[in-house]
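Retro notes, structure queue

What went well: the backlog is down to a handful. What didn't: a couple of records were mislabeled last round, so from now on we paste the full input next to the output in the thread. Example, using Cell wall glycosyl hydrolase YteR from Aspergillus saccharolyticus JOP 1030-1:
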Amino acid sequence: MVRMKTLRTFVLSGLATNLSVVAAAGRACENGTRPYSAWLADSVIARKDALLTADTEGDISLSLKLGLFQISVIHLKEYYDAVSCAKEDWDAYLKEATDSILPRVLNVTGDIEAPMDIFTTANGLYYQYEKSGDEKYKQGLDALRQAYDGRRRNSEGGFWFYNARPNLSYLDETYPLGAFTTIIKNRFEPTNETLAENLSKDLDLFKDHCHHDTGLLAHGYDASKSAPWSNKTTGASPYVWDRALGWYHMGLVELLYNTDEFGILNQTQRDDAYKKYYNLANTIINDVDEATGCWWQVMEHGGEKGNYIETSGSAMFTYSILKGVRLGYLTGNHPESGKNYKETAQKCYNWLLENRVVPDDNGALNVSGTVGVCTLEDPTYEYYTTQPLSYNSVLGFAPFVMASLEHEMAADAMSS
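Corresponding output:
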Protein backbone atom coordinates (compact mmCIF):
# COMPACT_ATOMS: atom_id res chain seq x y z
CA MET A 1 0.00 0.00 0.00
CA VAL A 2 1.04 3.64 -0.45
CA ARG A 3 2.70 4.90 2.73
CA MET A 4 2.01 8.43 3.95
CA LYS A 5 4.25 10.67 6.02
CA THR A 6 3.51 14.01 7.59
CA LEU A 7 4.92 17.21 6.16
CA ARG A 8 7.01 17.57 9.29
CA THR A 9 9.28 14.80 8.01
CA PHE A 10 8.82 15.72 4.36
CA VAL A 11 11.77 14.56 2.25
CA LEU A 12 11.67 14.30 -1.52
CA SER A 13 13.96 12.09 -3.54
CA GLY A 14 16.89 14.45 -3.73
CA LEU A 15 15.29 17.03 -1.46
CA ALA A 16 15.42 17.16 2.32
CA THR A 17 13.59 19.51 4.62
CA ASN A 18 15.56 18.92 7.81
CA LEU A 19 18.79 20.19 6.31
CA SER A 20 20.90 20.26 9.46
CA VAL A 21 20.04 16.66 10.29
CA VAL A 22 20.89 15.56 6.76
CA ALA A 23 24.22 17.36 6.82
CA ALA A 24 25.15 15.94 10.20
CA ALA A 25 24.25 12.42 9.16
CA GLY A 26 26.21 12.57 5.89
CA ARG A 27 28.81 9.93 5.14
CA ALA A 28 32.30 11.36 5.70
CA CYS A 29 35.14 11.07 3.19
CA GLU A 30 38.37 10.15 4.95
CA ASN A 31 42.06 10.65 4.14
CA GLY A 32 41.41 13.16 1.41
CA THR A 33 39.43 10.73 -0.74
CA ARG A 34 36.69 12.13 -2.91
CA PRO A 35 34.05 9.94 -4.57
CA TYR A 36 33.49 10.36 -8.29
CA SER A 37 29.99 11.77 -7.71
CA ALA A 38 31.43 14.63 -5.65
CA TRP A 39 34.36 15.15 -8.03
CA LEU A 40 32.00 15.39 -11.00
CA ALA A 41 29.75 17.86 -9.20
CA ASP A 42 32.69 19.98 -8.08
CA SER A 43 33.90 20.15 -11.68
CA VAL A 44 30.60 21.62 -12.93
CA ILE A 45 30.46 24.10 -10.05
CA ALA A 46 34.06 25.24 -10.59
CA ARG A 47 33.36 25.93 -14.27
CA LYS A 48 30.06 27.73 -13.46
CA ASP A 49 28.33 25.67 -16.13
CA ALA A 50 25.01 25.36 -14.26
CA LEU A 51 24.27 29.02 -13.59
CA LEU A 52 22.35 31.68 -15.48
CA THR A 53 25.07 34.11 -16.57
CA ALA A 54 25.75 36.37 -19.53
CA ASP A 55 27.42 33.39 -21.20
CA THR A 56 24.50 30.99 -20.70
CA GLU A 57 21.40 33.20 -20.92
CA GLY A 58 20.82 32.28 -24.56
CA ASP A 59 20.83 28.54 -23.89
CA ILE A 60 17.26 27.33 -24.35
CA SER A 61 17.94 24.24 -22.22
CA LEU A 62 19.59 26.14 -19.35
CA SER A 63 16.67 25.81 -16.93
CA LEU A 64 16.75 22.04 -17.41
CA LYS A 65 20.52 21.86 -16.95
CA LEU A 66 20.43 24.06 -13.87
CA GLY A 67 17.43 22.34 -12.33
CA LEU A 68 18.68 18.81 -12.92
CA PHE A 69 22.15 19.61 -11.66
CA GLN A 70 20.70 21.16 -8.52
CA ILE A 71 18.76 17.94 -7.93
CA SER A 72 21.96 15.92 -8.30
CA VAL A 73 23.80 18.14 -5.80
CA ILE A 74 20.94 17.88 -3.30
CA HIS A 75 21.14 14.09 -3.68
CA LEU A 76 24.84 14.32 -2.79
CA LYS A 77 24.16 16.47 0.26
CA GLU A 78 21.70 13.88 1.55
CA TYR A 79 24.29 11.11 1.46
CA TYR A 80 27.70 12.72 1.92
CA ASP A 81 29.20 15.12 4.42
CA ALA A 82 29.91 18.12 2.19
CA VAL A 83 32.68 19.44 4.45
CA SER A 84 34.89 16.37 4.02
CA CYS A 85 33.78 15.25 0.55
CA ALA A 86 33.49 18.46 -1.48
CA LYS A 87 36.11 20.91 -2.68
CA GLU A 88 33.48 23.40 -3.82
CA ASP A 89 30.82 24.89 -1.52
CA TRP A 90 27.69 22.94 -2.49
CA ASP A 91 25.31 25.09 -0.45
CA ALA A 92 26.75 28.30 -1.86
CA TYR A 93 26.31 26.92 -5.37
CA LEU A 94 22.69 25.90 -4.75
CA LYS A 95 21.82 29.40 -3.57
CA GLU A 96 23.73 31.13 -6.35
CA ALA A 97 22.07 28.97 -9.01
CA THR A 98 18.57 29.54 -7.66
CA ASP A 99 19.13 33.27 -7.30
CA SER A 100 20.42 33.44 -10.86
CA ILE A 101 17.33 31.78 -12.39
CA LEU A 102 14.73 33.34 -10.06
CA PRO A 103 14.07 36.53 -12.07
CA ARG A 104 13.30 34.41 -15.12
CA VAL A 105 11.02 32.08 -13.17
CA LEU A 106 9.06 34.98 -11.71
CA ASN A 107 7.85 35.84 -15.23
CA VAL A 108 4.68 33.75 -15.39
CA THR A 109 4.09 34.48 -19.07
CA GLY A 110 7.64 33.41 -19.83
CA ASP A 111 7.12 30.21 -17.85
CA ILE A 112 4.00 29.43 -19.84
CA GLU A 113 5.75 29.99 -23.17
CA ALA A 114 8.99 28.21 -22.20
CA PRO A 115 9.69 24.50 -22.73
CA MET A 116 8.45 22.30 -19.88
CA ASP A 117 12.07 22.23 -18.68
CA ILE A 118 11.35 25.31 -16.55
CA PHE A 119 9.53 23.19 -13.97
CA THR A 120 12.77 21.40 -13.05
CA THR A 121 13.78 24.55 -11.17
CA ALA A 122 11.12 23.90 -8.51
CA ASN A 123 13.45 21.68 -6.50
CA GLY A 124 16.07 24.37 -6.04
CA LEU A 125 13.43 26.96 -5.20
CA TYR A 126 11.85 24.73 -2.60
CA TYR A 127 15.24 23.86 -1.10
CA GLN A 128 16.05 27.54 -0.56
CA TYR A 129 12.57 28.36 0.73
CA GLU A 130 12.68 25.62 3.36
CA LYS A 131 16.22 26.54 4.35
CA SER A 132 15.84 30.31 4.57
CA GLY A 133 12.11 31.02 4.76
CA ASP A 134 12.69 33.83 2.27
CA GLU A 135 9.37 34.54 0.55
CA LYS A 136 11.03 35.34 -2.77
CA TYR A 137 11.58 31.61 -3.30
CA LYS A 138 7.94 30.89 -2.50
CA GLN A 139 7.01 33.56 -5.04
CA GLY A 140 9.04 31.63 -7.60
CA LEU A 141 7.14 28.45 -6.79
CA ASP A 142 3.86 30.37 -6.99
CA ALA A 143 4.82 31.65 -10.43
CA LEU A 144 5.48 28.11 -11.61
CA ARG A 145 2.15 27.02 -10.14
CA GLN A 146 0.34 29.73 -12.10
CA ALA A 147 2.24 28.77 -15.23
CA TYR A 148 1.29 25.13 -14.76
CA ASP A 149 -2.39 26.08 -14.91
CA GLY A 150 -1.74 28.18 -17.99
CA ARG A 151 0.09 25.54 -20.04
CA ARG A 152 -1.45 24.44 -23.33
CA ARG A 153 -2.66 20.85 -23.66
CA ASN A 154 -3.79 18.64 -26.49
CA SER A 155 -7.31 17.33 -27.02
CA GLU A 156 -6.62 14.33 -24.74
CA GLY A 157 -5.23 16.40 -21.90
CA GLY A 158 -1.52 15.86 -22.53
CA PHE A 159 0.81 18.82 -22.07
CA TRP A 160 2.43 20.46 -25.05
CA PHE A 161 6.16 20.48 -24.47
CA TYR A 162 6.62 23.95 -25.90
CA ASN A 163 4.03 26.46 -27.10
CA ALA A 164 6.17 27.30 -30.11
CA ARG A 165 5.52 23.74 -31.36
CA PRO A 166 1.73 23.23 -31.10
CA ASN A 167 0.35 19.79 -30.26
CA LEU A 168 3.80 18.22 -29.83
CA SER A 169 4.49 16.30 -26.62
CA TYR A 170 8.04 15.16 -25.80
CA LEU A 171 9.02 12.39 -23.39
CA ASP A 172 11.48 14.96 -22.04
CA GLU A 173 8.63 16.76 -20.23
CA THR A 174 7.82 13.92 -17.87
CA TYR A 175 10.80 14.41 -15.55
CA PRO A 176 10.20 18.16 -14.91
CA LEU A 177 6.48 17.53 -14.57
CA GLY A 178 7.01 14.78 -12.00
CA ALA A 179 9.49 16.82 -9.96
CA PHE A 180 7.19 19.84 -9.87
CA THR A 181 4.07 17.81 -9.07
CA THR A 182 5.82 16.11 -6.16
CA ILE A 183 6.77 19.38 -4.50
CA ILE A 184 3.47 21.16 -4.99
CA LYS A 185 1.25 18.25 -4.00
CA ASN A 186 3.16 17.24 -0.90
CA ARG A 187 4.23 20.57 0.49
CA PHE A 188 1.43 22.90 -0.54
CA GLU A 189 -1.62 21.07 -1.93
CA PRO A 190 -1.73 17.57 -0.40
CA THR A 191 -5.45 17.10 -1.09
CA ASN A 192 -5.27 18.19 -4.75
CA GLU A 193 -5.80 14.90 -6.58
CA THR A 194 -5.94 16.64 -9.97
CA LEU A 195 -2.17 17.13 -9.88
CA ALA A 196 -1.58 13.39 -9.67
CA GLU A 197 -4.28 12.72 -12.25
CA ASN A 198 -2.65 15.10 -14.72
CA LEU A 199 0.77 13.50 -14.24
CA SER A 200 -0.62 9.98 -14.59
CA LYS A 201 -2.53 11.02 -17.71
CA ASP A 202 0.61 12.43 -19.30
CA LEU A 203 2.53 9.21 -18.58
CA ASP A 204 -0.34 7.12 -19.98
CA LEU A 205 -0.59 9.15 -23.17
CA PHE A 206 3.08 8.65 -23.93
CA LYS A 207 2.71 4.93 -23.47
CA ASP A 208 -0.40 4.85 -25.66
CA HIS A 209 0.97 7.03 -28.45
CA CYS A 210 4.70 6.25 -28.47
CA HIS A 211 4.83 2.51 -27.73
CA HIS A 212 6.96 0.46 -30.15
CA ASP A 213 6.67 -3.28 -30.66
CA THR A 214 9.97 -3.62 -28.80
CA GLY A 215 8.37 -2.05 -25.71
CA LEU A 216 10.45 1.12 -26.04
CA LEU A 217 8.88 4.55 -26.50
CA ALA A 218 9.41 7.00 -29.34
CA HIS A 219 10.72 10.50 -28.61
CA GLY A 220 7.24 12.04 -28.68
CA TYR A 221 4.00 12.45 -30.56
CA ASP A 222 1.88 14.95 -32.46
CA ALA A 223 -1.65 14.78 -31.08
CA SER A 224 -3.02 16.39 -34.24
CA LYS A 225 -1.18 13.84 -36.44
CA SER A 226 -0.48 16.67 -38.87
CA ALA A 227 3.34 16.67 -38.73
CA PRO A 228 4.85 14.99 -41.81
CA TRP A 229 6.77 12.57 -39.60
CA SER A 230 3.87 11.56 -37.35
CA ASN A 231 2.41 8.10 -37.45
CA LYS A 232 -1.04 8.48 -38.96
CA THR A 233 -2.59 6.17 -36.36
CA THR A 234 -0.78 7.13 -33.16
CA GLY A 235 0.90 10.44 -33.98
CA ALA A 236 4.24 9.04 -32.76
CA SER A 237 7.61 10.18 -34.01
CA PRO A 238 9.56 7.43 -35.79
CA TYR A 239 12.63 6.91 -33.56
CA VAL A 240 13.55 6.15 -29.96
CA TRP A 241 16.03 8.73 -28.64
CA ASP A 242 17.97 7.46 -25.65
CA ARG A 243 17.93 10.66 -23.59
CA ALA A 244 14.21 11.26 -24.08
CA LEU A 245 13.51 7.75 -22.87
CA GLY A 246 15.98 8.34 -20.04
CA TRP A 247 13.93 11.30 -18.80
CA TYR A 248 10.83 9.13 -18.77
CA HIS A 249 12.45 6.22 -16.92
CA MET A 250 14.23 8.43 -14.38
CA GLY A 251 10.95 10.21 -13.77
CA LEU A 252 9.20 6.92 -13.08
CA VAL A 253 11.70 5.69 -10.49
CA GLU A 254 11.64 9.08 -8.73
CA LEU A 255 7.84 9.07 -8.78
CA LEU A 256 7.66 5.57 -7.31
CA TYR A 257 10.02 6.51 -4.48
CA ASN A 258 8.15 9.71 -3.69
CA THR A 259 4.80 7.92 -3.81
CA ASP A 260 5.97 5.17 -1.47
CA GLU A 261 7.27 7.78 0.95
CA PHE A 262 4.65 10.50 0.66
CA GLY A 263 1.65 9.30 -1.31
CA ILE A 264 1.93 11.32 -4.52
CA LEU A 265 -0.23 8.81 -6.39
CA ASN A 266 -3.11 6.67 -5.20
CA GLN A 267 -2.64 2.91 -5.16
CA THR A 268 -4.06 2.33 -8.64
CA GLN A 269 -1.90 5.07 -10.12
CA ARG A 270 1.13 3.78 -8.23
CA ASP A 271 0.63 0.23 -9.50
CA ASP A 272 0.37 1.52 -13.06
CA ALA A 273 3.54 3.61 -12.68
CA TYR A 274 5.37 0.59 -11.32
CA LYS A 275 4.25 -1.54 -14.26
CA LYS A 276 5.54 1.11 -16.65
CA TYR A 277 8.87 1.33 -14.82
CA TYR A 278 9.40 -2.43 -14.55
CA ASN A 279 8.42 -3.29 -18.12
CA LEU A 280 10.47 -0.45 -19.54
CA ALA A 281 13.51 -1.45 -17.49
CA ASN A 282 13.35 -4.89 -19.08
CA THR A 283 12.97 -3.54 -22.61
CA ILE A 284 15.81 -1.06 -22.05
CA ILE A 285 18.04 -3.95 -21.02
CA ASN A 286 16.95 -5.86 -24.12
CA ASP A 287 18.39 -3.03 -26.22
CA VAL A 288 21.75 -2.76 -24.43
CA ASP A 289 24.98 -2.84 -26.43
CA GLU A 290 26.66 -6.09 -25.48
CA ALA A 291 30.21 -4.80 -25.93
CA THR A 292 30.01 -1.65 -23.83
CA GLY A 293 26.99 -2.41 -21.66
CA CYS A 294 25.59 1.04 -22.56
CA TRP A 295 23.02 2.41 -24.98
CA TRP A 296 22.98 3.89 -28.46
CA GLN A 297 21.88 7.41 -29.35
CA VAL A 298 19.15 5.99 -31.60
CA MET A 299 17.87 2.92 -29.82
CA GLU A 300 16.72 -0.16 -31.77
CA HIS A 301 19.41 0.71 -34.35
CA GLY A 302 22.59 -0.21 -32.52
CA GLY A 303 25.66 -0.55 -34.72
CA GLU A 304 24.12 1.12 -37.75
CA LYS A 305 25.98 3.78 -39.72
CA GLY A 306 26.43 7.03 -37.82
CA ASN A 307 25.00 5.72 -34.56
CA TYR A 308 27.09 5.83 -31.38
CA ILE A 309 27.02 5.12 -27.65
CA GLU A 310 25.59 8.28 -26.08
CA THR A 311 26.66 9.39 -22.60
CA SER A 312 23.66 11.18 -21.09
CA GLY A 313 21.03 8.56 -21.91
CA SER A 314 23.35 5.76 -20.83
CA ALA A 315 23.97 7.52 -17.49
CA MET A 316 20.24 8.01 -17.03
CA PHE A 317 19.48 4.33 -17.57
CA THR A 318 22.35 3.39 -15.26
CA TYR A 319 20.88 5.62 -12.57
CA SER A 320 17.26 4.54 -13.01
CA ILE A 321 18.16 0.84 -12.94
CA LEU A 322 20.58 1.03 -10.00
CA LYS A 323 18.11 3.09 -8.00
CA GLY A 324 15.36 0.61 -8.81
CA VAL A 325 17.57 -2.22 -7.56
CA ARG A 326 18.41 -0.35 -4.33
CA LEU A 327 14.74 0.38 -3.63
CA GLY A 328 13.60 -3.15 -4.42
CA TYR A 329 11.69 -2.30 -7.61
CA LEU A 330 14.01 -4.58 -9.58
CA THR A 331 15.24 -7.81 -8.03
CA GLY A 332 17.42 -10.58 -9.36
CA ASN A 333 17.63 -11.11 -13.09
CA HIS A 334 15.88 -10.09 -16.30
CA PRO A 335 12.99 -12.55 -16.79
CA GLU A 336 13.96 -13.45 -20.37
CA SER A 337 17.70 -12.91 -20.87
CA GLY A 338 18.72 -13.78 -17.31
CA LYS A 339 20.91 -10.68 -17.12
CA ASN A 340 21.37 -9.39 -13.61
CA TYR A 341 19.89 -5.90 -13.28
CA LYS A 342 22.61 -4.51 -11.04
CA GLU A 343 25.47 -6.04 -13.01
CA THR A 344 24.04 -4.74 -16.26
CA ALA A 345 23.93 -1.16 -14.97
CA GLN A 346 27.33 -1.46 -13.32
CA LYS A 347 28.88 -2.57 -16.61
CA CYS A 348 27.69 0.59 -18.32
CA TYR A 349 28.82 2.73 -15.41
CA ASN A 350 32.32 1.29 -15.56
CA TRP A 351 32.51 1.75 -19.34
CA LEU A 352 31.44 5.39 -19.10
CA LEU A 353 33.97 6.03 -16.35
CA GLU A 354 36.79 4.48 -18.35
CA ASN A 355 35.89 5.88 -21.77
CA ARG A 356 34.07 9.18 -21.30
CA VAL A 357 35.59 10.77 -18.17
CA VAL A 358 39.03 12.44 -18.26
CA PRO A 359 40.69 14.69 -15.64
CA ASP A 360 42.29 17.93 -16.81
CA ASP A 361 45.40 19.73 -15.60
CA ASN A 362 43.36 21.75 -13.12
CA GLY A 363 42.05 18.66 -11.37
CA ALA A 364 38.55 18.91 -12.79
CA LEU A 365 36.80 16.09 -14.63
CA ASN A 366 35.64 16.35 -18.23
CA VAL A 367 32.84 14.29 -19.77
CA SER A 368 32.49 13.60 -23.49
CA GLY A 369 29.96 11.90 -25.74
CA THR A 370 26.82 13.84 -24.79
CA VAL A 371 24.60 14.93 -27.66
CA GLY A 372 23.27 18.48 -27.71
CA VAL A 373 19.57 19.27 -27.92
CA CYS A 374 17.34 17.09 -30.11
CA THR A 375 13.83 18.21 -31.02
CA LEU A 376 10.92 16.91 -33.07
CA GLU A 377 11.27 19.46 -35.85
CA ASP A 378 12.75 16.90 -38.26
CA PRO A 379 13.21 13.65 -36.30
CA THR A 380 14.92 11.52 -38.94
CA TYR A 381 17.63 8.98 -38.26
CA GLU A 382 20.14 11.27 -39.94
CA TYR A 383 19.04 14.16 -37.73
CA TYR A 384 19.63 12.28 -34.48
CA THR A 385 22.99 10.88 -35.57
CA THR A 386 24.39 14.18 -36.85
CA GLN A 387 23.46 16.55 -34.03
CA PRO A 388 26.64 18.03 -32.53
CA LEU A 389 28.12 16.53 -29.38
CA SER A 390 28.44 18.90 -26.44
CA TYR A 391 31.70 18.49 -24.50
CA ASN A 392 31.20 18.83 -20.73
CA SER A 393 27.46 19.24 -21.15
CA VAL A 394 25.61 19.48 -17.86
CA LEU A 395 23.04 17.16 -19.44
CA GLY A 396 25.73 14.47 -19.34
CA PHE A 397 27.29 15.47 -16.05
CA ALA A 398 24.14 15.65 -13.90
CA PRO A 399 22.82 12.13 -14.60
CA PHE A 400 26.38 10.81 -14.29
CA VAL A 401 26.61 12.39 -10.83
CA MET A 402 23.38 10.61 -9.92
CA ALA A 403 24.54 7.30 -11.43
CA SER A 404 27.86 7.61 -9.60
CA LEU A 405 26.09 8.18 -6.31
CA GLU A 406 23.96 5.06 -6.80
CA HIS A 407 27.10 3.10 -7.70
CA GLU A 408 28.83 4.36 -4.55
CA MET A 409 25.82 3.63 -2.35
CA ALA A 410 25.73 0.07 -3.69
CA ALA A 411 29.44 -0.37 -3.00
CA ASP A 412 29.06 1.04 0.52
CA ALA A 413 26.17 -1.32 1.21
CA MET A 414 28.28 -4.28 0.09
CA SER A 415 31.19 -3.31 2.33
CA SER A 416 29.16 -2.54 5.46
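Agreed that this is the format going forward. Reviewer comment attached to the example: The chain has one domain: 23-415.
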